[in-house]
Amino acid sequence: MLSTVRKQTGAGKVRIGVAGTEEFFREVQLHGRRGGIAGFLLLTYLQLWQLGERASLNKAIEIVRPVLPDWEQQCSSLWSVDNHVRHIPTSRRLLLSSYQKFLPAAHLWAAFIHGLQNDRPDIAPDDNSTLPTFLGYAEVFLKLGTEAPWAGKDRRRVLPQRKCWSFFISDSLKIVPEIEALPELPHP
Q: 30 or 143: whose pLDDT is higher?
């Protein structure tokens, strides 16, 4: 699906050939945890902003970092590309790097994290029956992210809309959830 989107829009590098299920899950295994961190940081940033708190990525990191599991490197003489597969980034540098790398899809990851935090299996991208709900929540987080101010010099909003992935959903399938209050902030 993403290969087709990239080919039609010209965004990103087009994948040569079709990704099979095994290759897809390998990519998810390699990148999912860092993508999840980007979504978690965005969700926390939006929570701070919605609650009238000082919203910043540094503040989001302060809140998110203590609830992440500790990771210890097992003894290894060689580092391979996938040696860190189970590693969830916890250092400030790696958290920021994850957010920046996955910024275009952070709202999608935020929807996924929101579904996990609220035990909502209907907010998941893995089935055609739940995909419209998942994309509906992602669209809400994208809208919030394009309204939330950003104090950095590189942009005015936490999510620059022109850089973020968005998908056209026909009106017959579109679900527009109303999020009255974002989930509570995690407590360390």
A: 143
From CA 110, how far away is CA 123, in angstroms rounded? 11
Burial class (CB in 10 A: 0-12, 13-18, 19+), 20: exposed
User: Which residues are CB-neighbours of 107 under 8 A, at least 6 positions away?
Assistant: 39, 42, 138, 139, 141, 142, 145, 159, 164
pTM, 2 dp: 0.71
Cα-Cα-Cα-Cα dihedral of 186, 156, 175, 108, to 10°?
Answer: -60
DSSP code at position 182? P
- Answer with the residue of higher pLDDT: 91 or 143: 143
Contact 73, 130 (CB under 8 A): no
Overall average pLDDT of the 50-58 stretch: 89
DSSP string of 152-164, one letter each residue: SSS-SBSS-GGGS
Task: Say yes or no to pLDDT of 76 above 50.
Answer: no
Q: Are 90 and 71 in contact (CB under 8 A)?
A: yes
The secondary element (H helix, E strand) that includes residue 140 is helix 131-147
